[in-house]
Amino acid sequence: MANLPKLPFFERAHAAATKNSDKPAIIDSRTGKSHTYADLLRDANAFKAKLLSNGKQDLKEARVAALIPNGYSWVVAQWATWAAGGFYVPVLHTHPVPEMTYIVENSEAQIIIVHKTLEAKGRELAEKTGVKQVVVIDEDFQTVSGKEGLPDVSEESFDLERSAFMLYTSGTTGRPKGVVMTHKSLTAQAKSMSECWHWTENDKVLHVLPLHHIHGVSNILLTALYNGATVEFMPKFDAPGIWQRWQADSRDLTLFMAVPTIYSRLIEVYNSMSPEEQAKATKACSQFRLMVSGSAPLPSPLKEKWKQISGGQVLLERYGMTETGMILSCGMPEEHRVDGHVGLPMPGMTVRLWDEEMQKDVTDQREAAGEIQIKGDLVFKGYWRLPEVTKKEFTEDGWFKSGDIGMRTQDTGFFRIQGRSSVDVVKSGAEKVSALEVESGILSLLPYVREVAVVGVPDEKWGQVVAAVIVLNDKDMKLDIKKLRDDLRQDMANYKIPQKLKIYEDKIPRNAMMKVDKKSLVKEAFPAES
Question: How far apart are the C-alpha atoms of 271 and 54, rounded to whole Å?
Fold first, then answer.
């Protein structure tokens, strides 16, 4: 049996399998099957043969696109690609075919791995993009791996600077860009989160996020496997199903990570329960040692409500990017989880705040705002086939420019995010308004608001004016801009109060990670001005 390459994830999985051959790595609720670390290594090692053709021993970073739903098959495909020397490119199977086509063509994929339930779509995609090699994967891995023993990990060194994985940006500032991560950067991310959030082999995390985003892949899946922990996949987000799983007799989950909108949906389901059901739901939350919220700002009212219904769980906030993994995190002690703050630099990260106008580092100037810039092994290799764009996103001395504006507060020194310089900082006259701050203020001050997105709308006189898109708790309520401004005037500075208002009846449009594309929202909600 051929050895697996000397990759840190393989080495640590091998150690977990050797220590306990029955230790579950992946529980796939879609198939109802549990898979050990030994299974994962055997199946990945066997499946790599399907990717190597014509006597090849190494794919030499050939891109391998994967059209696979969340679950064990996805992980086998990723690890088999790495074992074969390939470069894994996940494609969200629920995306429209044109979007999938763009990713396959842009990445110059040479192989498509497709799950048997999506085979027709995968072959259509291959035909459209000219990919010659299509490999079908399913859950019946015994036909592939048989009863082989545990494969060894090679003692020969492996170049960790090789490209390993590519995720695509959301494309809010143009066509989506491929973010290239190396084995070194993925390992550094897992190591950093392991240290910061105290992961161990005893952890078990319920995974409900998509696997075409850094949150679902690096924060949860790879960090869990790096530690010999267990990942239990739900096929998709299902708020009632999550509450039901939490209340299972096993009470064996220790971690849950999600975006604010998911916690909001879970609260809605909780509110619909009977008092007896609510008591059971609250008790179920006691099994978790840590619950994390990220990928979008966490409104203080939502955080406080979650603490109430979960029996005291204080959500930990953190901040990261596709290009870097996690950058900042609040601390494990609850007193270090300050509302609206994202804490301090993660292990292995160096962070500064850069004032572009003054051309100086303002990190140590409390309450001074600047662009968050980052250095560390966790940072990505570059944008795929875009050397000039990559060069522009780094300073001459090697700092990655996040495009996000942050500041450190006077009392704690913790960082907080003011938003994307391009969409979350509204430049109205001489004032710079943080859209995230206004959103948080509206949700805190106005109990009749369920959802809000604050944007900058072009204006001839002021450059931009602050505008709000709002979803109300009561659809029958009447809200106009005058009432909104009057209700905010006592507690919010006048220049921050929205001057334009759009009411949405059901929800504000969001992408797969439940983020708002504010540039598109401005055009949709305020078409005359934009």
Answer: 59
